[in-house]
Design a protein that fits this description.
The complex is a heterodimer of chains A (113) and B (112).
Chain A (H helix, E strand, L loop, with lengths): L3 E4 L2 E5 L4 E7 L6 E7 L6 E7 L4 E4 L2 E6 L4 E6 L8 E7 L9 E2 L3 E6 L1
Parallel strand pairs in A: 2-11
Antiparallel strand pairs in A: 1-3, 3-8, 4-5, 4-9, 6-7, 7-8, 9-10, 9-11
Chain B lengths: L4 E3 L2 E4 L5 E6 L6 E8 L3 E9 L2 E4 L8 E7 L2 E6 L8 E8 L5 E3 L3 E5 L1
Parallel strand pairs in B: 2-11
Antiparallel strand pairs in B: 1-3, 3-8, 4-5, 4-9, 5-6, 7-8, 9-10, 9-11
The chains are: A mainly beta (113), B mainly beta (112).
């Protein structure tokens, strides 16, 4: 089955700086790569996703890149703000999400004021 | 729409007791997933349903765990008998064709 590795487990950045979280996946059939944000006491919430036919996608301060050859994808957050502090999860699926997602272990992002 | 609704939000029980977690999915979402979240293992897929039919239960840890979806508006995850190692946050999530999984706020289970 699919295996998703995520790094780092904890990331502390100064407010206004950029944050990058990286993930690798094992199943070459995976075609859907979402990123979820989880705030304390809540369920994960989708913030951005990318499909295998696209190399990069951007939504305001958030961007995701995908390298299918190397089987890795990354989340980039620019101009970080205090409300960006949360746990971020990457995930992968070979069925576009219909058969569930395999998640990475998560990155605790801390924005220092 | 109210989103995915889970109950109870918190449950504390003693080892050996039966635990039932409940989920009301978003109307019109025809796939439902149960995940378990722990610090050690992260988010693990336990089972999922498509049109109320269980499709893959390979993630269910053992026979003590069972899940049902009697209709499109309701699903349960049952643990009988419960053990301390079952302590975790259990999430229900529903899926729509755009690919997005919508999670409930979770049920935090503590087994003493």
């Amino acid at each position: 089955g699919e295996n998703v590795e995520q790094h780092p487990s904890t990331l502390s950045v100064q407010e206004g700086d950029s944050a990058v979280i990286k993930c690798t996946y094992s199943d070459s059939a995976s075609n859907y790569f979402p990123w979820y944000k989880q705030e304390l006491g809540k369920g994960p919430q989708l913030i951005i996703d990318i499909r295998s036919n696209v190399g990069e996608k951007k939504d305001q301060r958030i961007a995701v890149t995908l390298n299918k050859t190397a089987k890795h994808f990354s989340l980039h957050i620019t101009e970080t703000q205090p409300e960006d502090s949360a746990v971020y999860f990457c995930a992968a699926s070979s069925g576009g999400g219909a058969d569930g997602l395999t998640f990475g272990k998560g990155t605790h992002l801390i924005i220092q004021p | 729409d109210a989103g995915v609704i889970q109950s109870p939000r918190h449950e504390v029980t003693e080892m050996g007791q039966e635990v039932t977690l409940r989920c009301k999915p978003i109307s019109g979402h025809n796939s439902l997933f149960w995940y378990r979240q722990t610090m050690m293992r992260g988010l693990e897929l336990l089972i999922y349903f498509n049109n109320n039919v269980p499709i893959d239960d390979s993630g269910m840890p053992e026979d003590r765990f069972s899940a049902k979806m009697p209709n499109a508006s309701f699903s349960t995850l049952k643990i009988q008998p419960s053990e301390p190692r079952d302590s975790a946050v259990y999430f229900c999530a529903t899926w729509r064709v755009t690919g997005e999984l919508f999670f409930g706020e979770g049920s935090r289970l503590t087994v003493l």
